[in-house]
Structure formats: structure tokens, C-alpha cells
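User:
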Amino acid sequence: MKKKSTIENIFFWSVLILTSTTSSFSQFSPGELSRAHQTLEGTENCTKCHDVGKEISGAKCLGCHQEIQEQVTARHGFHFSHSTEACVVCHKDHLGRDAKTVQFDERKFDHDQTGFHLNGKHSDLTCEKCHSDTHIVNQSVKNLLSKYPHRSYVGLTSTCSPCHADPHNGKFKQECSSCHTTTAWTTVKNFDHSTTKFPLDGKHADVSCSKCHPGFTSTKKDEHPDMKTQAFTDCAPCHSSPHVSKFENKTCNSCHTSDGWNQALRKPFDHNMTRYRLVEKHASVRCEQCHRAIEKATFAKVFLLPHQQCIDCHEDKHHGEFKQRYNNNCATCHTERGYKPSTFTLAKHATTNFSLTGGHLAITCYDCHYRTVSAELVFHFNNLGCETCHKDVHNGEFASAMNKSGCATCHSTEQWKTTTFDHSATKFPLTGKHVSVLCTDCHKQEGNKKGIVQFRKISVDCESCHKDIHQRQFVVNEKTECSTCHKTEGWHSLTFNHETQSTFSLKGAHKNVACKDCHHEEKTGDARFVRFKPLATTCASCHQQRNLK
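Assistant: Predicted structure:
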């Protein structure tokens, strides 16, 4: 007994001496503890982990690491399957403050030892996808990490919810694996829809899940299938009604069944309940004339036909001429009572670029809007000038004027022969007697061109219209200048001045002598004329009696 007491005293003092200096401590301790165990540094704490004279058994480890003890007690997880092994097999310490205490190779780790087999999509995941602080549910592990932050591989459960958000929002209480597999989320096994409130029959039996449950096959992060029970007393939750509010007092199954939507065609149908009432000519049209049943065609393609415009069904006989002005709205001119007659009134025509006035008001539409050659109706004209419909009776004489104001320069729609032409703007203003002369008295048919009256390039000389009754007495350079003596106010309105325009001055008694006393009428062949020149100017030529004073 005395020998034993001596040995114990020696050991005690040896330890006391060794702990008194840093150098002696470094010789006693294998190295610094990890940051998580640094509070256990010092020889006074050695026995908190170590048994004197024995190997580390792990019993003291579990005294602190309750999270591991819970796995062993629950008989589940990696630490339970290796509970017979010492902790130091995987966990090493005294390697320094920042050293890893977990010693294992993630790439070679056999996850089956944890009791959670990685199969399906799980087999392709990296460790950190699951082993992160956000997925830990064990409170003991959470408490430990809050004190000593580090990466932990424990604290998870084998259920899906810690890693995967519940797309069903807690509606289904059973475990996910009762319907789903790890191969793919949309791979559902052993699910019998007949056990729900909506057994699948008829066409519904062939419908994929995603058709009714939105997002069933989606890979978007925030999009999940909606498995909630919907109000399926009618079809509306899944099917949009093509009838809008027309059948609000009726359910779909009053006309249709799940065996086929088109079964409704076998029953009498009131088309007036749709968005397109059948009136007038449309009321006698057979269903198949509009709704053509094409094999494998969708309901929308057969029944939900566009009907905003007539050309949705009818050919546009105007070839788009009214697209810009009337947006191809046939109702502007036509009704369902019939394509003819048109309802386009004179008042509507007045709103166009060509208002009907005068004689145009009495003309039928076909006279202007029908092309005989092509047998086509035309309503859009590139040129609204008169020549588009009317033949140029002037044979191009007024081409320059036509380019400016057209036929309206002279004519109006009131009457063709009523002209507004201003002759004073020409080289031959109309004055005196000319004002009352008919146009046709001067403007006659051009040569042998029947119906073509000449208006231009007409001589303005008097003899071009008037006969020279003086028998060329006053011709100068082959031209008789009538205005030398006459005015347009009248033939006898003379402007002749005997003093300045002749070689015989009228003086004295001659001033009162009548013209005819000197200028006598002569005859040449069948022509009678008054002699003005040449005329003798001697006295004897007029005064032949001797007693004449």
C-alpha cells in the first residue's frame, strides 16, 4: 500500500510540474484541439474525453454529442450502423485549430450505410445539395452549429420535405413515396383516380395528368402541380366555354358527355344562344356549310370560327378595295337579307372622294363601277378625272388644261353643253356681235373627222369666218384687215377715216356727200360689190355735166 501511494504522489507532482510551463505542456499534449473542442484545452480537461490508462471508447464522446446518441438510440443512421466502432476511426483531433475532425473521402463514401439509399435522381446529386444547414431538422444539431459553426453531415431525416418544398401545400398527409419515385417527380405509381371525387371515364381516361393539374410536368422552380379538388359539378374549371354567357343557366352535360364533345350535334341546337345569331339568309344555311367536321380537327377549329367580318366566311369580291377605308366591313353596303341590292346611298357616296352631282346622280352604279372587258366590278380608281369614264371628244386638244383642272375648266356635271369657258382668256376675246354668236358657228367639225370639233389652231382672221364682200379690194400681203374700217359691234359701225386712210381728202362740199354717190355698186360675174378702190380722184370722174358747179 505504501509503495502504491508513493507512485501516485510521484505522478501527481510530475503532472503539476509539467503544467507549470508552456514548453513542458507542448511535450505532454499531442497538439492543439480543433476549434469546436478548444474549450477543452488544458491538462485539467484531458479526462473529460480520455480515460486514464485506456483507449478512447467513445462513451464520453456521446455524452457531449447528443445528436449522435439520438441516432444510436433510434437505431437508425450511419452512426448506429457503426456504433460498435470507436469514434476515433473517423474523427481525429489534436491536429490544430482549423483542422477537419471528420476523416473520410466523400467520393468513396457508401451512402447505403446511412440507411438512405441514393437512387434515381438522388444518385446524381453532390453531397452539399442535401447536407446544408438549411435542411437540418434535428434541434440538437442546430444548437451545436449555432455555437460552433461548421459543416455537418447529420441532422437530416429520410423524409422529402426538408429538401423539397411541398407543392401540394400540406393537402396530402401521406409520405411522398406513396405516389412518387426518385426516378422523376411526374412518375406516379399505384394511384387510382377512381378513389377520388372525380372518376376518369370517357375521353377523360386518356387525358394526361398535366392537362388538369397545371404545371404537372413543369421544370420551373416555382411552378407546381395543382392537385386541389376543384368544383367539377360542371366542366368549366378545366374547359373554357366557347358559349361565354349564353348558356349561363345550363350545365355543359345538358348537351355534352365525356364520350365526346361533338355528341351535341345529334341534338337540336339553338344557334341564337351563341355569340352569332342566325338571321335572314344565314338562318337557312346548313350547319356543315360553316362547321366542317374534319378528322382529328379540334373543337375550336370546327366550331369556334372567326365571325367578326363577313370575309371570315365569304369571298371578298372586291379584292381588298375597301380594306383601308371601311376595314372590309361588308355591312357598310350589304345586309344579311341578300348581297344585292347595295345599301350604299347617295349620302354615303358624298362622303367619298367623288361626290355625285348633276347628271351623275341619275347614273346607275354599273355604268361607272363595271368593267365590260374583264367583267369585274371596280370601286377604287387611281384617277378620278372625267376621262376615266368619258371619251375625250376633243381628241387631246386640251391635254394641257386637263392636267390642271380637267373638263371642269369648261364643263360641269349639270349639262355637257352648258359651258363656263372664258373666251377672253384666249387670243381671240369675244366682243360686240361675237358675244352672241354660237360656238358652233366658228368651231366646226375638223376635216373629215366625224364628231371632232376643232377648237384650237383656228385662224383669227375675219375672212376665216366672214365672206370678203369687197372682192379683195383691201388685200395686203394676201390678208384683209377688216378692223381697219369695221368694229365687232356691227358691220356698219365704221372706223374708217377718209382723211388719213385714203388719198382723197373730203373737204368743203365733199364732206356732206353720201358714200354711195362716189362709190357705186359693180358686178363681176355673179358677185355684186361696191367699188372702193381703185377709184379715180379727178373731178371729171364724178362731175360730168358742164353746168355742174
